[in-house]
Design brief:
mainly alpha, Methane Monooxygenase Hydroxylase, Chain G, domain 1, 6 helices, 264 residues, elongated
Length: 264
Amino acid sequence: MNTSEFLNEAIEVEKEIDEITSYIRQVQTIQTKRLIATSAQQEATLSQERDQLTDILIKLLTKTKDRIRKIESENINLRKDDQPDILLRENRHAVLKSKFQKALDTYRDIEDSYMQQQKDKIIRQYRLVNSEATEEEIENYLQNPSNSIFLQTSTGSREAKAALAEVQKRHGDIQHIEKTITELLKLFDEIRLHVEESDPKIQEVETVIEQNAMDLEKANDVLEVANVEAKSARNKKWICFSVTLVLVVILIMILIFIVVPTKH
């Protein structure tokens, strides 16, 4: 890509990241509504909307990640060729990558928060059928959910079935969230892995740049010494000239004193 094409590409990628951020906020809004839904139908509708948005988000995140990686690869090659606009390209890439990672962080934080809220609801349902449950028992249940506690409870069967249905819904949500977070972590790893794979190339370029900088510094040192020596030579010439001028003046004055008395 030439500079103009690169700038257009950077603008498009930035628009995609803004679109991703907008979708993330929509997912957050839907999940908040789902937590306070008052009917099973409302929850089902919101879950469907969330799942659709999540699928769109993951596809868009993957697409944007690939575009950012492509820019990075091209920058590495241009860096080796010492292209004049490489600093512009690298700065734009750094901005895009930072915004993309921030979007990933935000999305993961939202999913983590929603998952914790779902776990809190499960814990409340669990305590309804086992009020004396210890923290360890609850944690074990969250790690290895089982229907037995609800089916064997001495609380009435109606309440137990309602609690079981509620817990099963929450577990379904948690599984969906865990899948999303796994995909987000994969995106994180892929964008970091690309940089790690490129490190030898970058190191090679940086070594050349560092060597050039050292050579330039040596050249500057030599030039500085030459300037000092030239300045010293000029100073010596000026001193010689000044001394010569003073001697000439003194000689003239001596001649004047000698000649003038002789005429009288």
